Amino acid sequence: MNKILLIIKREYLTRVRKKTFIISTILFPVLYLGLIFGMGYLGEKAKPKLHVAIVDSSGYFDKGRIERENQKDSSSILTLLTSSTDSLKKNFSEWNYDGYIVIPAQTNWESGIKNLLLNTGRTMGGEASGRVESKLNNIWNEIKNEKLGIDEGKKIILANSTVTVKSVNVNDEKANSSVASTIGYVAGFLIYFILLVYGSQVMMGVMEEKTNRIAEVIISSVKPFQLMLGKIIGIGLVALTQFFLWVAFIFIIYNVTQASGSNVGAMGGIVGKIQNAFSSINVWMILFGFTFYFLGGFFFYASLYAAIGSAVNEDMREAQSLSFPITLLVIFSIAMMPIAMNDPSGPIAVWGSIIPFSSPIIMMSRIPFGVPGTVPWWQLALSMALLIGGFLFSVWLSGKIYRTGILMYGKKPSWKEMLKWAFKKN
Amino acid sequence: MPLLELNHLRKYFATQKAVDDISLTIDKGQIFGLLGPNGAGKTTLIRMITGIFYPDEGEIIFDGKKFDPINDIGHIGYMPEERGLYKKMKIGEQTLYLAQLKGLSKTDATAKIKEWFVKFDMNSWWNKKVEDLSKGMSQKLQFVTTVLHEPKLIILDEPFSGLDPVNTNLIKDEIYNLAKKGATIIFSTHRMEQVEEICDHIALVNKGQKILDGTVQNIKQSYKENLFKVKFTDKLQAEHLAIHLFEVKQKTDKEVIIKLDPGYTNNDVLQYFINKGLHIESFNEILPSLNEIFIRLVEGTPTARQFQEVNN
């Protein structure tokens, strides 16, 4: 037992002290947030501001309305021109317009205007013309309102009188499905990420011991099973450390913004929203579920990756081709996640969260919807029991393969041979 | 008193009888040479002694008791032929880690490492990484990690491969030292001249079976071919080399190698030459080298073992 602790300590410390760990722990959230905000910012910046000339033959549009609308919405600029269509067609780009729209003379306000053409010198994306369209629609609505005699007060009534539908789980009325799906999605994705990244770290670690030929030295001091288990636990703790550091970051940022930002308009609003959201879900249940499914899933997959690592030689391609079926199981689970989250009580979600190989990801995406509202206790219990059974089995099986594989050099074994190693006596 | 007794050990793999009924006794303080061609089963045998493999049959008695891998491997130091260390780990830390895995406490281990590092002039290495070391340097380090915990049994598989003569002597002296202090050493190799120099006792293994076992002197005696080398001060004439006593194997001007015919003794030969009036400068028996015995015993068996079906 003492020896396993030594191995865990070595595996943990050598990894946590590495620069790459520190950098990736800090950079991952920064890059992740940067990616989200950066994309949003770039998208916003890259939106072209269209200058469009309007030639109105119908007489409905006037300068005042267009001017008012330009002030309200600056994503495009409309200008009413009186020049002829022909000269506009020739000269619009010289006059610094991106395009022009001709409103036909036979326009009737009751039937509306269909199929207006935005004539431009280049190909426009749907979004750009959509913005011009909604702007013209706003102006058109005003014209209609005026014709129908609808004043400001009536307008507000019309705008606000809509029907909205929201689902409520009668078993768990607190459940907030949009927050739950966000948290479920993030949790499921995190587990997916950790399984793949740290699972392959286990595999590489085993391969390193094998190619450095230190494996035989070590297993003349400890049992191969201890070496494998120590490595898996050590690397698992590294992953857990990284996860809790991220949680701590979020917590600190949350508290700092709450302390300083409660009266800083927008930030305060967001904080308030987050606070509301968190009060509607069970944070402790989610943290407990995450830790359990993370550890269970990690043991399940990491031991399989360790077995693969022990079976192959230094060739990375061999390792990749042999570990592909296992990676596929992880990818399959993440692919199932959106289906499960759309219908968190449906059969795919239920079975996916019970079967051990997909349960770490699928169950984690369901738990935020509420226990026992969405996930009944029996399902959670069954899923946890099966996951424990599953990882005990996979650790046992991998231990057998590992024991033989770690001392084998030469040709890559087939799956059949590896199973033979697993089930032979001694 | 024997430190290690192997009784009828067997280990069969799917396609090979790697160790097929081997029994050995190794005494305390002995330097024991385990010889054999490639693929003879030496490594498998050693792996059973170090607790890496369980024997299919037979038993191992270690230090008077039935071998219990979990407790006894702390008393064994094993340097495999395929050696290795963590390349990216600092040398001091790594040595400490390996010593702790053998059951030493941190303070004990640190003290011993310092002692050995001074002895081998490795003090400046503590914070270096293994990847910074040359092959010979890392070999020295590997030796230190093998013997650091003062094992009762030290198993060295080809310990000198890749070492220059200076470091070879350094390690060789240490091996003698350790044996003098009471450690038992199993020395596995196919470099016969080293075996002859270092080992008290040897066993030769081929195709999973022990084909020879004994002290170096006894083995040489039992494989001698009654060859003698006689040197004369005078020039030899053809008529001096008569007929019945011996057969001439090789002859130069003043020297002859003869094979004694059965039934005659050394004295008969000397008597004969003296009677012929020759002046004898020296008279030596030629014992076969271990290398010759090794080749004689192993030759003719296929160099690579064939795969065979094993039913077990």
Keywords:
heterodimer; A: mainly alpha; four-stranded mixed sheet; 4 strands; B: 312 residues; alpha/beta; six-stranded mixed sheet; 10 helices; 14 strands
What report would you give on this structure?
The complex is a heterodimer of chains A (426) and B (312). In chain A, 69% of the residues lie in helices and 5% in strands. Chain A has 426 residues and is mostly helical. Chain A has a four-stranded mixed β-sheet. In chain A, α7 (177-211) packs parallel to α11, α7 runs antiparallel to α12 (316-342) and α11 (283-311) packs antiparallel against α14 (359-366). By secondary structure, chain B is an alpha/beta fold. Chain B has ten helices and 14 strands. Chains A and B meet through α1 and α8 of A and β6 and α3 of B.
What are the SSEs and their pairings?
The complex is a heterodimer of chains A (426) and B (312).
Chain A (H helix, E strand, L loop, with lengths): L1 H15 L2 H28 L3 E7 L6 H10 L3 E6 L3 H7 L7 E5 L14 E3 L5 H23 L3 H9 L16 H35 L3 H4 L5 H38 L3 H16 L2 H29 L4 H27 L4 H6 L6 H8 L10 H29 L9 H9 L3
Chain B lengths: L1 E12 L2 E12 L3 E5 L6 H8 L7 E6 L2 E2 L2 H4 L3 E4 L11 H11 L4 H14 L15 H13 L5 E5 L7 H16 L3 E6 L2 H7 L2 E6 L2 E7 H7 L4 E6 L13 E6 L3 E6 L5 H10 L4 E7 L3 H9 L14
Parallel strand pairs in B: 3-8, 3-9, 6-7, 7-8
Antiparallel strand pairs in B: 1-2, 1-4, 4-5, 9-10, 11-13, 11-14, 12-13
Helix pairs in contact in B: 3-4
